[in-house]
């Protein structure tokens, strides 16, 4: 097991949440329980780069509690809405990225 600093763990957690919501910063801030300005500062401080989730991200997304389905190179990420009701569905992956929406 590699040794990660707390800052590296926080960075990866924020990155995974951003991937799960296709970089929708409002949703990410809500899921992380921070305001959007704080999230923007984190993205800048850690030089996070907007990208789509890949199959390599799936195990970590699942460890965070996201439900991920893979179908033909596309990851479908599900998460509970803030009101505890129905789940939101976000499609990420290669097919979606070709459409110009990372």
Give the helix/strand layout:
Layout: H1 6-20, H2 25-32, H3 36-45, H4 58-63, E1 67-71, E2 74-80, E3 87-93, H5 94-98
Helix pairs in contact: 1-2, 2-3
Task: Describe the model.
The chain is of the alpha+beta class and 102 residues long. It is built from 5 helices and 3 strands. A 3-stranded antiparallel β-sheet has the order 1-2-3. Helix 1 packs across helix 2 (25-32) and helix 2 (25-32) crosses helix 3. Mean pLDDT is 79; it is low at 94-102.
Shape descriptor: globular
Number of helices: 5
Largest sheet: 3 strands, antiparallel
Helix-strand category? alpha+beta
The beta-strand count equals 3
Widest β-sheet, arrangement of strands:
1-2-3
Order of helices and strands: HHHHEEEH
Computed Rg? 14 Å
Query: Helicity, in percent?
Result: 40-55%
Instruction: Tell me the domain tally.
Output: 1
Distance between termini? 31 Å
What number is the mean pLDDT?
A: 79
Uncertain spans: 94-102
Strand content: 15-25%
Summarize the structure.
By secondary structure, this protein is of the alpha+beta class.
């Amino acid at each position: 097991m590699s040794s990660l600093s707390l800052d590296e763990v926080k960075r990866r957690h924020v990155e995974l949440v951003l991937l799960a919501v296709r970089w929708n910063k409002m949703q990410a801030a809500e899921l992380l329980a921070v305001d959007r300005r704080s999230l923007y500062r984190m993205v800048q401080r850690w030089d996070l780069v907007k990208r789509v989730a890949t199959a390599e991200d799936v195990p970590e997304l699942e460890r965070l509690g996201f439900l991920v389905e893979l179908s033909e190179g596309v990851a479908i990420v599900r998460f509970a809405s803030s009101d505890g009701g129905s789940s939101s569905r976000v499609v990420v992956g290669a097919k979606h990225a070709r459409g110009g929406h990372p």
